[in-house]
Every structure is written in C-alpha cells, then in structure tokens.
Amino acid sequence: LVTRMRPFTSTIFAEMTALAVRTGAVNLGQGFPDTDGPAGMLAVAKDSIDGGLNQYPPGPGMPVLREAIAEHRARYGTNYDPDTEVLVTVGATEAIAASLLALVEPGDEVVLIEPYYDSYAACVALAGGTRRSVGLVEEPGTGRLGLDVEALRAAIGPKTRVILVNTPHNPTGTVLNRDELAEIARLCVEHDLVAITDEVYEHLVFDDVEHVPLASLPGMAARTIAISSAGKSFNCTGWKIGWVCAPAGLVGAVRAAKQFLTFVGGAPFQPAVAHALRNELEWVEGLRTSLQNKRSRLAEGLAEAGFAVRPSEGTYFITADVRPLGFTDGLQLCHELPERIGVAAVPVQVFTDHPEQWQHLVRFAFCKKDEVLDEAIRRLHKLN
Ligand code: PMP
Ligand code: GLN
C-alpha cells in the first residue's frame, strides 16, 4: 500500500475492540456508552422513519436542526445564523475532515495538541498538510495534563495555517481553562491562524469545571470553526450527527468539501437531535452527573489496583500511569491485558508523535454501567 494513507491503515479502537471481543474482555478501550439516549429523542427518530423522512435531507442539514444548533450555541454567548453559519455533518469526524480538507493546502502546517484524537493526523495527511504536535505537560503537584504555552508558541511558524484544539480533551480528560484558551486565542490572532475546535464532550465536564468554547473569546468568533456532535451528549454515537458553526465564509468552504465526501446524511436522526438539543438538556445533566460518579469510581478502583491515576476533568476517559505496577510500555500492556486479565484499554502513545514520552500512560473509558466498571476493577486487581 504505497499511498499517503500507509501509516493509517487501522485504528487502535477497531484493533482493541476486536481483541476484546475475541478474548471476552471487559472493553474499556473504545469509548461508547452501554445505555441508550433520552426516550423522547429515540421516539422522534422512530416517528421520522415512519413518517417517511428517509430520503436525502438538504445539503446544509434540515432547517429545524440548524436552528436548534444555533440556539444551543447561543448559550455560550456565540451567535450563528442558522442559514449561513451552521452546517450539519456526518458526525464530528466528517466535520473535522471537511474543515481540514477545505483549509489546508499542501505544505501548510497544522498544530495539534498531543496526545490527539486519531483522525486528526490522518486528515491532515489527506489534505497534504504537515502536522506539528505540541505535548500537554504534567502540572507539578496535581498531575493534570495542561497546555505548554511556550511549546505552542515555538511550534507556530510562517507555514502554520490552522490549530486544532480539542477540549474537553480525549484521551486525557483535561478541560482547557480560560487562561489556557486565552493564550491560544492570543497566538491565533497574532499569527492569523484559523482555529478548529473539537467540542464533542462539551457537556461532559465534572466537578466545578466549565467548558469554554474558544470562539467565545475576544477576536476568536471570526476565525474559529466550532465542531460538535450529538453522539456523546445524547448517548447516540452510532447516529453520526455532527455540526460546524463558523462565519459564513468558513462554513461555505467546509460545505464545499463536505458535499463531495458524503453529500448529506442521517435524515431521520436530524429532527431527533433537534428535539434533543431543545428538550433534553436536563437529561444530559443527569448523564453528566452519572459520568462524574463513574469517573470517580474508576479512578478509585485504578488507584487501589496500583495505577497512578491522572486527574480527569471531563469526557469518557481517564488516564493512568502503569509504572507503579512495574510496567514500562503501555502499548505492550494493552496488547497483553485482554488475554491476561480480561480487560481492554487503549495506550496513549498511539495518539502521539512522541511515543517514548507517553508510553507510561494508558486510557480507560468509564462510560459503562457500574457493574461493568466494578468487574473491570476486580480483574485489574489481579495485576498486583
Ligand atoms: N473527536 C473526539 C475527540 C472524539 O472522541 C470523537 C469520538 N469519539 C470524535 C471526534 C468523533 O465524533 P463523531 O462520532 O461525532 O464523529
Ligand atoms: N471516540 C471514541 C474513542 O476515543 C471511539 C471512536 C472510534 O472508534 N473511532 O474511544
């Protein structure tokens, strides 16, 4: 296979899920919930199918959904015109791909915060761009993986066109705070960069942590493509309804790429997600609380089993240092774990360009029923 996709032939999620299925392991690898979303949302999807909403929806997305997305983003103080500044996509995945394909010319550089979600590097490669990855750094005392502002500044050069920012952050669970985002915003303005923000975990933040969209900071609305999706907020990762909010010029460019990737998608799910954005945010608050408890449950279990757990402020994920248990390589451990003790997890190093710096960390997903988490914890104790 001699193509630019050669380094991207399989994903760690597919690999680890297949291994988990083959060995009957508890799968805390791939992040997907094991319960359904709000009943009202599911009912609208079923009614939509029964009502004949089964043909191509409009290219930019159904008006009812674009309006609901614009209303939802207004909660952050950012206003978008549903007709020209909102685009419905096939999940956040397509939104990210179409944004990069639309903006990045061969030779342009894209700054990624490392570790980064796996599709980012692949899509930068598809666009013919070059990635510059900037590692999060462990904060002394808390172990939180925070932004390294100096490293970010150093990564930006004359060819940098885009910075892709994911907060709440997969795989670490870090939620970038206002100070960190203000530094990113300053650099974007100073170097005239476009920011693409991946906010799919926008509602899944814990304790007193707040999700702040980069676009809500001064000077940023005009240069930010804000991306989110329904999958994580409403437990429907298989529906693949995502969206882009940005100024009309940027949305037009993304739409031009998107129309030749999938054209449109998910007709019967679009009104259901519109319903959910307007009526199910209380349900989402329940989900948030429940995930917060699951985060704490797994964090305690991992610590008791001997891992050094890093703080998780949001998302589905928590990372743990495997060195206190005598292991050095998370990749090797993740390949052995399903067979050895019947648990699947994901090594953090596969989300980086510097595996040697990240090989001690493993990611566990806690978006699972309590009994599933408890069984995984029971099995993880066998590592001691
Ligand atoms: N970005 C991040 C950080 C994710 O974790 C995921 C999915 N797990 C996605 C994007 C993809 O979202 P979607 O399923 O809506 O395509
Ligand atoms: N986003 C999910 C995760 O990080 C899985 C997505 C996928 O399987 N591509 O685990």
Automatic annotation (TrEMBL):
- According to the entry, every stretch annotated as the Aminotransferase class I/classII large domain falls at 26-380
Tell me which GO cellular component terms the UniProt record holds: cytoplasm
What Gene Ontology molecular-function terms does this entry list?
Answer: kynurenine-oxoglutarate transaminase activity; pyridoxal phosphate binding
Where are its TM segments located? none
- UniProt cross-references to InterPro entries, sorted A to Z: Aminotransferase_I/II_large, Kynurenine-oxoglutarate_AT, PyrdxlP-dep_Trfase, PyrdxlP-dep_Trfase_major, PyrdxlP-dep_Trfase_small
For the keyword Lipid biosynthesis, the answer is: no
Q: Which cofactor does it need?
A: pyridoxal 5'-phosphate
Asked whether the keyword Transferase is assigned, the reply is yes
Q: Classify the source by domain of life.
A: Bacteria
What are the record keywords, sorted? Aminotransferase, Pyridoxal phosphate, Transferase
* Matches recorded under PANTHER family: FI04487P (PTHR43807)
User: To which protein family does this belong?
Assistant: Belongs to the class-I pyridoxal-phosphate-dependent aminotransferase family.
What is the protein's name according to its record? Succinyldiaminopimelate aminotransferase
Which species is listed as the source?
Saccharothrix variisporea
- Taxonomic path: Bacteria, Bacillati, Actinomycetota, Actinomycetes, Pseudonocardiales
